[in-house]
Amino acid sequence: MVNMEKTYASVDVSSKVGMWCAGLGLMAVVCSLWLWLFGPGPDLRQRLCLVLLAVPLFGVIMIVVRQRSAGGRRSVEEVALAEFPHADGMAECSVPRELPSRRGRQLRSFMWAFGIATALIGIAALAAGTPQRDELLQRIHAAGGEFERVDAVSVRDVQRKSSSGKDSYTATVLVQLPGVPSGQSVQKKIQATTKKVLRPGDLVDVLYAPTRPELGAISGDERSLGWKLRGETMSAFGRWSVALMWALSFLFALFHVWSEHGFRAFSRLGRRDRAIRAQCVGYVGPGASATASSSSTVLLKVQTDLSEVSFRAKVGKHGSLEGMQGAGVWLCWDAQRGARGVRMSPQETPAALLFDTGLVVHGMVKVQEVRHLKGSAAPAKKGDSTRVKPESLRLLDYRSRWPSFIDALVLQVIVLVIACAVVLTFDVPTGWRVVAGVVGFLGVIAAVGTHLREEKPPKKEATVQ
Question: How much of the chain, in percent, has pLDDT values that exceed 70?
């Protein structure tokens, strides 16, 4: 009993460590992305991004320390087994008014989807951006660079670009740069890209420092060079395109939570909810059917007096729910969601199974399967809170203890991704930027795949009836 209490205490600490590490890590990554897109000058922006990127690295260190202090990494099966009550089943009782909340699972599902998308978008934005002004541009900026239209003295090496676009000609142009306040002009060569062939005497848009024309000039106008002069990482179109993709990923994460878990915490049963006595009669493992196609989704067949209901729960193959067949349960569900039956109505509604052992499993049921049960089911609001106390119930949610069983390889890949992001905040050659960007992007995918491998279903998973 003492060892079991230690195990419970250990997994509770792991859950809190995971919550803080994931929350702070996601916040740091989001802030880093927005600083990169809309932050201040290059030097301050780089320092702030490096500080923020240290936060997920600190989270990795905390997880490693936590695993070592708990005696090492635990297996997923061991963590999942600790979720099950180790007491004899209690007699059939009234459905309680309160259940353990599913809010933690909803937040974790949101951070999982949103965090992966943000990391991928962030690595791509870092690789595509320009962290610093180049040497000539920096000197012109320090000397008070301005945009001006100057005369072309001579034009040579005119070439037509192979790709089609607004600017289709390149040439080496000798331009006359007027000096202020000396009034002396300086001639400098620039590489100009224009819509039409340039000729001597034509006006050319350049960026140069009027007080120091001897520094030279760069061909371009406010539209093409303004963002570089201001020290921004990419053009306004590029920044807002990245911001749009990020916003879409946020909406996708919300939709993912809504479709998989709903938005209700489903912790306090009320007037809109129904409950009916049933028996668990079957189990379909992960990936064994089209309905349970996800590697973490199982189906529990629940038999009521009227019909059989398929209860979908994302508990993974380690949930060990196949051993609960024949157990008596209370099936509770939200009878209002999808009740209208119109075309755009949700097809599934939040539900929960309360086993007589005190185990609570959150999931979803099809609206069509439970609609006809509404008449024979009791309003959950009339539940008896005196016979079943909330503290006697135990929620099946072993994934909240992910710091206890996350693989060391995943943590190593995360460190590699952070290192790639750090490299991309510096002004490195284009070739190295491409390498760091590709490695970081693939590293995020590899970390996700390695972690999901823990939930990979067996090659053969039978349906038990």
Answer: 80
Q: What is the pLDDT of residues 198-220, one digit of tens each?
A: 888 889 999 999 888 888 899 98
pLDDT at 70 over 90: no
Cβ proximity of 286 and 296 under 8 Å: yes
- The mean pLDDT value for 25-46 works out to 94
pLDDT at residue 36 above 90? yes
Give the tokens for residue 8: 């419970």
DSSP 40-69: SSHHHHHHHHHHHHHHHHHHHHHHHHHHHH
- Positive or negative: CA dihedral 140, 143, 149, 154: negative
Distance of CA 132 to the CA centre of its chain: 28
The structural domains of the chain, ordered by start, are: 1-72+103-132+232-263+408-456 (no CATH), 89-101+267-405 (no CATH), 135-229 (2.40.50)
In order of 149, 155, 181, 217, 460, the CA distances from 212 in angstroms are 16, 23, 10, 10, 75
Give the DSSP letter string of 3-38: HHHHHHHHHHHHHHHHHHHHHHHHHHHHHHHHHHHH
Q: Which amino acid, 227?
A: W
Cα gap 404→18, rounded to integer Å? 9
* DSSP for residue 82: T
Token pair 């520094």 in the structure block, residue: 215
Q: Is 413 helix (H, G, I), strand (E, B) or coil?
A: helix
Write the pLDDT tens digit of every residue in 146-172.
999 988 888 888 888 766 556 678 888
The predicted-structure confidence for 107-116, as pLDDT tens digits, reads as follows 999 999 999 9
First to last CA, the chain: 34
Cα–Cα distance measured from residue 349 to residue 329, given in angstroms and rounded to the nearest whole number:
18
Helix, strand and coil content of the chain, in percent to the nearest 5, comes to: 45, 20, 35
pTM of the model: 0.84
Torsion sign, CA atoms 444, 450, 452, 457: positive
Q: Which residues contact residue 423 at a Cβ distance below 8 angstroms, ignoring those fewer than 6 apart?
A: 432, 436
Structure tokens at 271: 């007037």
Position 9 scores a pLDDT of 47
Q: Considering only CA atoms, which of 391, 406, 361 is closest in space to residue 14?
A: 406
Classify each residue of 167-196 as buried b or exposed e, where b means 16 or more C-beta atoms within 10 Å of its C-beta.
ebebbebebebebeeeeeebebebebebee
**pLDDT for residue 461 is more than 60:** no
| Residue scoring higher pLDDT (124 or 189) | 124
3-state DSSP call for residue 337? coil
